[in-house]
Amino acid sequence: MAGKRELFLKHVAQTSNLSMMLEVSHAEGMYITDVRGKKYLDFNSGISVSSLGHRNPDVVTAIKKQTDLYMHTMVYGEHIQAPQVYYAQLLTSVIDSSLNSIYFLNSGSEAVELAIKLGRKYTGRHEVMACRNAYHGSTLGAESLRSDLDFTSALAPTIPGIRHIDFNDFGQIEKINEHIAALIIEPVQAESGVNPPAPGYLDALRAKCDETGTLLIFDEIQTGFSRTGSLFAYQKYGVLPDVLLIAKSMGGGMPIGAVVTGRQIMQSIANKPSLAHITTFGGHPVCVAASLAALQYHLNHDIAYGVDKKAEILKKKLKHPIIKEIRNSGLMMAVELTKKKYLKHVVSRAIENGVLVDYFLFNDRSFRLAPPLILEEKHIDEGTTKLIEAMNFALQVYS
Ligand SMILES: Cc1ncc(COP(=O)(O)O)c(C=O)c1O
């Protein structure tokens, strides 16, 4: 009989030839254990999802309680479901009062799709601006925001009217004009290898968007929920967007995404035509119950508070001659190596050593560290020891 690995390769779609092939048995807290009993310290959080670690007990309890009451009852917006109401109430109470309306979806990409539609419908314009080397999702609208033509040309025609600027380039802010419906931007650019905003950059974007009537949309799908040391990065950098996009760690391990904005902007999907954005499963009560428990956990345990300190300790302990620099915003971190040839050896050896790290989409010299935010000093010691051994190994390969 075919084994699980064989069946996986035969019947479960892969999107590259680089599958890690880690056969998961169970996951708890900071660790994922494979079917052979090998424990992996998770320094990746499934790309910034498991920020509260795996199987956070409050999240698991909330899921169980909700499944005992009801699961799907009706598509979004038709029934009043307690988890959605309480989530919306809690979230809007801890963010700026102008962000007072939430639309629940299934994923980050869908939140980006709705953001593009809101930008167009609210302003009556069709051009949308994004930054080069940003990733906003895999649906066609979200992919259209990519600057990388080698990639998007295979999908052509993508949606028209997309303009690009370089992140942190003050000179290009002038390109935002009265034709641009929305600027969709991450406050910390993730996939280019963690680039925090230069001082004053987000303020300058805010000012220009105010001047041109362009919606400023922050994609906080990676930066949200304490990752950068504040509940949201917009709070850390002190610049308020018109629209906030959230997903990934929002669900505490369950699939969900959302768009948060002011009631007036959100209303544009309810009129002319109505039902301008609908979803069958978006805001599924079990996922929202999990999200509510996760948000309560962030707030009750002040998860954001310890993030910067842990990041500093991690950076201090991760010293090696092949590290060129470490860029970070809280525990969203990129370790840039002196030569790109080291990268694949470091990443694969680290995984062999039992610490999960990952690549970036648009940076071939850096690896990603995005551990669960609950990590303790003993995990930092374990992870950095294993990473340093992996870097010794990479150096030795070329000696
Ligand atoms: C910044 C950012 N935006 C959007 C997305 C798309 O989210 P999802 O994969 O949930 O569709 C991602 C996913 O990696 C992301 O990192």
Topology:
Layout: H1 4-11, E1 24-28, E2 31-34, E3 39-42, H2 45-48, H3 57-69, H4 82-94, E4 101-105, H5 108-123, E5 127-131, H6 140-144, H7 149-152, E6 162-165, E7 180-185, H8 201-212, E8 215-219, H9 233-237, E9 243-246, E10 257-261, H10 263-266, H11 285-300, H12 307-317, E11 323-329, E12 332-337, H13 343-353, E13 355-356, E14 358-359, E15 366-369, H14 377-397
Parallel strand pairs: 3-13, 5-6, 5-7, 7-8, 8-9
Antiparallel strand pairs: 1-2, 2-3, 4-10, 9-10, 11-12, 12-15, 14-15
The structure holds pyridoxal-5'-phosphate (PLP).
Characterise the protein shown here.
This protein is an alpha/beta fold and 399 residues long. The chain has two domains: 4-56 and 305-397, Alpha-Beta Complex (Aspartate Aminotransferase, domain 1); 57-300, Type I PLP-dependent aspartate aminotransferase-like (Major domain) (Aspartate Aminotransferase, domain 2, 3-Layer(aba) Sandwich), CATH 3.40.640.10. Helix content is 36%, strand content 17%. The protein has 14 helices and 15 strands. The protein has helices at residues 4-11, 45-48, 57-69, 82-94, 108-123, 140-144, 149-152, 201-212, 233-237, 263-266, 285-300, 307-317, 343-353, 377-397; strands at residues 24-28, 31-34, 39-42, 101-105, 127-131, 162-165, 180-185, 215-219, 243-246, 257-261, 323-329, 332-337, 355-356, 358-359, 366-369. It has a seven-stranded mixed sheet, with helices on both faces. A hairpin with a 6-residue loop joins β14 and β15 (366-369). α12 (307-317) packs parallel to α14 (377-397). The termini are far apart. The structure holds pyridoxal-5'-phosphate. Pyridoxal-5'-phosphate binds at residues 47, 107-109, 112, 135-137, 186, 190, 219, 221-222, 247, 257. Pyridoxal-5'-phosphate is lined by residues 47, 107-109, 112, 135-137, 186, 190, 219, 221-222, 247, 257.
